[in-house]
Amino acid sequence: MILDTNAVSALLDGDKSLATVLAVAERHHLPAVTLGEYRYGLKFSRHKRALDALLEALESESFSLALDNGTARHYADIRSELKIAGRPIPENDIWIAALARQHRLPIVSRDGHFDDVHGIRRVGW
Questions:
Q1: Taking the model in full, what pTM does it have?
Q2: How many angstroms separate the Cα of 27 from the Cα of each of 2, 6, 40, 124?
Q3: Which domain holds residue 13?
Q4: What is the dihedral of CA 79, 34, 30, 48, to 10 degrees?
């Protein structure tokens, strides 16, 4: 399962309902985009030190997902599909959706706009 930024936030905040969802997989996938978004948020957090340590632990226990040429192709397809449908979503979420489609993995997220992307599955909590 791919973790969206709001899933990482909830996980590191100790959201117990998310723990149940994540229990189905021993290791999870962390996109570079998610890590960038979360690390940006840490820059302004008063709990930066503690959360940074938790994020480091999560990174070491997860698979990293980098963007590559295949991801770029999926990104272009998804962005054009959403534009034609008149259902744009945030730019970074298109990249996360592209990774999900490329690797055939569900996205753990509270963002319902992922439901508008054909060929991926969102797991909420």
A1: 0.94
A2: 10, 18, 24, 18
A3: 2-123
A4: 180
Q: Dihedral sign, CA of 11, 16, 18, 23?
A: positive
Rama region for 104: left / alpha / beta (φ>0; ψ in -120 to 50; rest): left
Residue 104 amino acid letter: R
pLDDT per residue as tens digits for the range 84-125: 999 999 999 999 999 999 999 999 999 999 999 999 999 999
Residues of 42-63 as b/e, b for ≥16 C-beta within 10 angstroms? eeeeeeeeebeeebeebeeebe
Q: What is the pLDDT of residues 4-55, one digit of tens each?
A: 999 999 999 999 999 899 999 989 999 999 999 999 999 999 999 999 999 9
Q: Give the CATH number, domain containing residue 18.
A: 3.40.50.1010
Q: How many domains does the chain have?
A: 1
Q: What percent of the chain has pLDDT over 70?
A: 100
